[in-house]
Amino acid sequence: MPADCLMYPASPLPPAELVGRLERLASALVSDGSGRWAGATGLGPIAGLKPGQVVVGPAFTVRTRPGDNLVVHKAMDIARPGEVLVVAAGGHTDRALLGGLMGQYAATKGIVALVVDGAVRDRSDLDRVSPPVFATGLTHLGPYKNGPGELRGPVSVGGVVIRDGDLLVCDEDGVAVIPRHRAEEITSAAEAKFDSEAAERRAIAEGTWDRSWIDAALAVREVS
Ligand SMILES: O=C([O-])CC(=O)C(=O)O
Ligand SMILES: [Mg+2]
Q1: Which atom of ligand 1 approaches the CA of 121 most closely?
Q2: What is the CATH number of the domain that holds 93?
Q3: ipTM above 0.90, yes or no
Q4: How many Å lie between the centroid of ligand 1 and the Cα of residue 174?
Q5: Alpha-carbon gap, residue 205 to 135, rounded angstroms
């Protein structure tokens, strides 16, 4: 008997202009712009990310049984160009959920990144042919393909809830998540942080960076 797979409606795609603004930023700025707790922790770039590259796109959420990638295959078949495939698998790293073949296929579908709360394999192939991959680990052990799973429902990845259509900002520091309904507000705050950091960099170079707040916040007591 076929395995169960619930599928919720696809979310509207974000305006290209918003995606472009976020691509000029970084996951750390987005994190700061949303109160420093927007990140999916424990996921790092594993393959395919170029130095300095920032990948942005709306989440296509996938929930799968740990160690099984049947619904991940289904998601790749129906993903829309520009989406980031987000695979929630409970952070288990005992079996890889995708590898080089699936990475190559994802690239042909226009998927811009693969975010896996679990392990992947075929790292060198992924590096060559896949959109950037963010995951919690690597293992040579391959997945089962039995299901079940869920598509476009809410998922928990690295300690945060990600809903289908939320915006992900993925770079060398990891994966930041912007809830869809707060996209404009958080993007503007991240842009403001970009500008204030530029001013701070100038001050550092000129030797005028304000350090007074440290002694105001700290009582140093010398001991011998
Ligand atoms: O066998 C699988 O499903 C995963 C894999 O290694 C690949 O995509 O190359
Ligand atoms: Mg493989």
Answers
A1: 6
A2: 3.50.30.40
A3: yes
A4: 23
A5: 36
